[in-house]
Amino acid sequence: MTAQPAPRLTRLLEALLGAGTDLDLRAVLRRIVDGAAELTGAGGAALVVTDPREGGIAGIRTPDPGPEPAPQTAPLLRVPVHVRDEEIGELRLTGRPGSGPFTAEDEQVLRVLAAQAGISIGSARLYETARQRERWIEGAAAVTTALLTEEGTDDALTTVAERARMLADASAGVILHPTAEGGMEIVTASTPDDPDDMVGATIAPGSPVLEQLLGGEPVFLDDSATDPRMTTRVRHRFGPSMMLPLQASGRLIGTLALPRRRGGRPYTDVERLLATQFASQAALALVLADARRGRERLAVYEDRDRIARDLHDLVVQRLFATGMMLESTRRRPGAREVDDILRQAVDELRSTVRDVRTTILALQQPPAEPPTGLRGRVLRETAAAAARLGFAPSARFLGAVDTRVPGPVADRLITALRHALAEACARGNVSRVEIAVDAAAPLADGRAGVRLTVFDDGTDGDGAGGVAPEGGGTDESAADAGAGDGGGRPGGGTTVTWWSPL
Question: Sheet containing 173-178: which strands, arranged edge to edge?
Fold first, then answer.
């Protein structure tokens, strides 16, 4: 007959099995401590962890271990707890009233439980390290995404400082820039307290820490308040700290500092490594974001150059031609003929003034934002059509189109404009398109209205321009807007007119 296992061995196996299946580290260590007291009959048991990295689990005891006995009156048994080859604390048994000293078997049981405690703590360390790496990697990716999109470019340094502070569980995230005097100055701070109190604080020139920082080397401090290398006026608030170079392609952008409160938990080697890698990636993202903004500025400058060329080619030449026409008037006899030419010249000058105003509006339109006013929206549609037509349509505006035309009417006008421009592009033989938006012309019944006219010099397939009367209506509803094709110009072409009451 097979011998039955001893009850004590059974309870030990149960304790180890329970410790191995629980995912909560504190619950596992509680099981081990309670099991140690139960299996040895000790009056109290405690797991004391001396490693500062495990400060959250130090001092775990049985629910009611009783008072700590003096060594002369009660036995005391201690067994070290190891994680791999590193001793991180000990498992203690205290007090065995009426049962005599602890035996070798008690010590063996305690060693088995201490080994299980070390395994559990080691596994928890590995799991936490993996989670930390995941958080830092996700944080670095989020910072890169934010800096390389429009939403993240307003204050890139604040984005880096804020994200790093949260990842490092620091009391502040600080960005320092080199100063002209050879020191370093806090230019951005992220902290639950008042960040303005920190901005402007400097590390004075000559500080021993500057040689490392300006050389692109990380600096790790056990206590910022007492470290003689620190000279900032806010150093007394902080304890453990990391100062990491923001450096990419040999270019030092600044320094990322992540201080914790005085008395806070020291940074581990893993945290230092992950934060250093984060700083390197954040620096690269800052450089790329700055390059992107540079390209955007260059695109704006190129666009302004194009508009300047348009001004020269269109406006200046038209003014010059008008001047030549007026000059030739002096040499022509006949008052009636002179009046006609002068009237034509005045019309051309008025048209030129409107073109100049339109061009100025285009220069003032922010390049990164969609236009909001009706003028800007019309100009955006003409710019889009220019890519298909091969030339830029001209646009003229009469009246206060941005203030007089309400939003719903403006939306319908833009829809009509898109339709007319699409038809002009489809004709294929168009070399000139003229757009006019008139918010000052009354409708046939005297009501205030807005009128859109789109003319192009192309012809339909049969070679003749479409001719139709202008549309009209009597109600102020959406159906009141009218549209029609009319060829009202000599030499052919197509004119589309759309109107609506205001």
Answer: 202-203, 184-190, 173-178, 251-261, 238-248, 219-221
Q: What is the pLDDT of residues 29-77, one digit of tens each?
A: 888 888 888 888 888 888 888 766 555 554 565 544 444 544 444 458 8
Tell me the Ramachandran region of residue 42: left when phi exceeds 0, alpha when psi lies from -120 to 50, beta otherwise: beta
Task: Answer yes or no: are the C-beta atoms of 234 and 247 closer than 8 Å.
Answer: no
The encoded tokens of residue 343 equal: 């009237």
Q: Please give the helix or strand (H or E) that residue 495 lies within, else none.
A: strand 494-501
Task: Give the DSSP per-residue string, 1-30.
Answer: -PPPPPHHHHHHHHHHHHHHH---HHHHHH
Which residues, in sequence order, are bridge partners of residue 455? 434, 495
Structure tokens of 1?
């007959």
Which residues sit opposite 247 in a β-bridge? 252
Residues 6 or more apart whose CB falls under 8 angstroms from that of 480 comprise 473, 474, 500, 501
CA distance 403 to 409: 12
Q: Note the residue count of the chain.
A: 502
Scored b (16 or more CB within 10 A) or e, 311-330 reads beebeeeeeeebeeebeebe
Cβ pair 59, 46 in contact under 8 A: yes
Cα angle, residue 114 at apex, residues 112 and 117 outer, rounded to 5°: 115
For residue 220, list its beta bridge partners: 242
Phi, psi of 75 (to 5 degrees): -70, 155
* Contact between 42 and 54 (Cβ < 8 Å): no
Among the residue ranges 19-33, 155-169, 185-199, 226-240, the one predicted with the least confidence is 19-33
Cβ–Cβ < 8 Å for 94, 65:
yes
Q: Which two tokens stand for residue 58?
A: 């130090």
Torsion sign over Cα 9, 15, 16, 17: positive
Distance CA 77, CA 100 (A): 12
Q: What is the pTM of this model?
A: 0.51
Tokens 């029609």 locate to 484
Q: Please give the single-letter amino acid code of residue 371.
A: P
Report pLDDT digits (tens) over 418-434: 899 988 888 878 888 99
- DSSP state for residue 197 in the 8-state scheme: G
Sheet with 44-49, edge to edge strand ranges? 60-61, 44-49, 86-94, 76-83
Q: Which of 176, 268, 270 is nearest to 222 (CA)?
A: 268
Phi (first) and psi of residue 266, to 5 degrees: -65, 155
User: In this structure, what DSSP letter does residue 196 have?
Assistant: G
Instruction: Please check whether residue 287 is in contact with residue 253, taking contact to mean a CB–CB distance below 8 angstroms.
Output: yes
Rg, C-alpha atoms of the chain? 41
Instruction: Say how far residue 351 (Cα) sits from the centre of its chain.
Output: 45
State the helix-helix crossing angle for 317-329 and 335-364, rounded to 10 degrees: 170
- Is residue 81 within 8 A of residue 89, CB to CB? The reply is yes
